[in-house]
Amino acid sequence: MAQSQVQKIELVQGTFSCAVCLDLLKDPVTTSCGHSYCRECLQHHWNVEEEKRVYSCPQCRRTFRPRPVLEKNTMLAALMETLEKTGLQAEETTVRQRELEETRQKIQQSIQHREKDLNMLQMKVESIKSSAEKATKDSKDIFTQMICLLEKRLAEVQQQVRSMQEAEVNRVKELQKKLEQEMTELKRRDAELEKISHTLDHSQFLHKFSLLSALSPLPDSTSMTICPLRYFEDVTAAVSQLRDEILRVLMGTPANNSQTVRNVDVLLPELQPEPEPFSRWEFLRYSRQITLDPNTVNKHLLLSKENRKARYTGKVQSYSDHPDRFTDYYQVLSKESLTGRCYWEVEIRGLGYGIGVTYKNISRAGKSFECAFGLNKKSWILSCSNFRHDSIKTIILSPGCSKVGIYLDHTADLLSFYRVLGTMDLFYRARANFIQPLHVGLWVGSFNSSVELMNL
Predict the structure, then answer these.
(1) Three-class SS string for 88-131?
(2) For tag attachment on the chain, is the N or C end more exposed, with fewer CB atoms within 10 Å?
(3) Which residues touch 380 (CB under 8 Å, ≥6 apart)?
(4) What is the pLDDT of residue 336?
(5) What is the reported pLDDT for 90?
(6) Which CB contacts under 8 angstroms, 24+ apart, belong to 148-157?
(7) Is residue 358 within 8 Å of residue 379, measured between CB atoms?
(8) What residues contact residue 274 under an 8 Å CB cut-off, 6+ apart?
């Protein structure tokens, strides 16, 4: 529609244009021959002819004497004013139409982006639903398995008690039968003795009494060792203890024996994990006393007497050969394995050090990457300038202090390193996928460098 309007305007402009300047008439005037021009254009044309005193029409060449007085063509002037306004509006419409199209394109792009975001959110909703449904189903299956195991165990305990009951009842009945036999024999003998006691003839009495020594001796009292009733009470107590352990896990109550049950957060009513420690005092709640294993230390490292400090001296130490010892890398492992939440601190000296964690089954002999901390999938190590795992190196700034705190949340797959400067200043955090218990790993590789596990 706008293009059609422009074509109409161009047609009008061709009809009402000046024959001299070829533009739309400006301040139009008309000669007596009927042709119209811009006042300025016609005056300039007649100024050139002034010397001849003959004034002509630029189109038909009709001459005029004397020079005519030019009068404004009011009708054409009004028409030209209207055409000028209309021309400007068509031009502005074109510009605005272009802006409109650009705006529509931007809006359509925004709509596409939002549709994509909506699709992603819908996918996330579906993913959440699917994950929740899977967790519900898996939980139901697991609890069903637990119920089946408990029912099976109940049947086993009941059968065991019944078998024990039957065995003990049979033993008691056998004792009863034996005691009845002994009582019958004793009563028989008692009757014989009573009969002898009534013998009046002395010689005959003595003769019969002497015959008593030839009789078999009296039977000993039958032993009555049977299962005490308290034994069955112990069975009830054992089952009650099992019940208490299960309730302790379900209710999240810490067990008296830390080795009995590992805290299972997913079974608790509140699924929110315990917040991470903030102050050093909170970290110390999870502190672990860690010592180094002399059987793993490389022979170029010297251990302190307490097995808490490893120092590189450049001399080979007189350690015995052991299959757990690192043969080529200047490394050592801790004796203690780590699970759950653990915190420990180290004091470092020098620049050639590495501190971190590793699985116990890391290789020990040789120079392959499978033995070196940080160059395989089994270890995570921090040095003064980088962090390594599976040969992937992340450049970091030096902790800038001699004391470093290490916080491990094995369940949450989190390993964090802090500057211990009165306050706890986190300077690197690594996320992993821990599938085994971990051991502290130290590497000391330059002269007079050392790493010491602090006593907390």
Answers:
(1) HHHHHHHHHHHHHHHHHHHHHHHHHHHHHHHHHHHHHHHHHHHH
(2) N
(3) 356, 357, 358, 374, 387, 388, 389, 415, 430, 432
(4) 93
(5) 83
(6) 157/235, 157/239
(7) yes
(8) 265
pLDDT of 139 higher than 60: yes
Is the pLDDT at 323 greater than 90, yes or no?
yes
Phi and psi at residue 429, to the nearest 5°: -135, 135
What is the share, in percent, of the chain residues with pLDDT greater than 70? Answer: 86
Distance in angstroms (rounded) separating the CA atoms of residues 296 and 282: 32
Positive or negative, the CA dihedral 390, 391, 394, 396 is positive
| Confidence grade of residue 4 (pLDDT, cut at 50, 70, 90) | low
Asked if 436 and 359 count as a contact pair (C-beta separation under 8 A), the reply is yes
Q: Does residue 3 register a pLDDT over 70?
A: no
Q: How far apart are the first and last CA of the chain?
A: 86
Task: Give kind and range of the element (H or E) at residue 335.
Answer: strand 331-338
| Residue found by looking up tokens 């050139």 in the block | 48
Q: Is the torsion defined by CA of 143, 148, 153, 154 positive or negative?
A: positive
Asked if 143 and 250 touch (Cβ cutoff 8 Å), the reply is no
Mean pLDDT over each residue of the chain, to the nearest integer: 83
Size (the chain), residues: 456
Q: Which amino acid makes up residue 91?
A: E
Q: Helix (H) and strand (E) counts for the chain?
A: 6, 17
Residues 6+ apart with CB under 8 A from 24: 13, 16, 17, 18, 80, 83, 84
Tokens of 305: 């007497």
β-partners of residue 442 are: 332, 355
Q: What does the pLDDT average to over 257-277? A: 47
Query: Which residue bears the tokens 């069975």?
Result: 235
DSSP secondary structure letter of residue 321: P
Rounded CA gap, 347 and 345, in Å? 7
Count of Cβ atoms closer than 10 Å to residue 150 Cβ: 13
Sign of CA dihedral 375, 376, 381, 387: positive
Residue-by-residue DSSP string for 134-149: HHHHHHHHHHHHHHHH
Output 322 or 262, whichever has higher pLDDT: 322
Question: Which pTM does this prediction carry?
Answer: 0.44
Using alpha carbons, select from 84, 83, 46 the residue that is nearest to residue 64: 46
Q: Which residues contact 60 (CB under 8 A, 6 or more apart)?
A: 33, 35
Reported as a single tens digit per residue, the pLDDT across 200-238 is 888 888 887 777 655 555 555 555 555 555 556 667 777
Any idea what the Cα angle at residue 81 is, between residues 77 and 82, rounded to 5°? Answer: 120
Alpha helices in 264-402 (DSSP H): 280-284
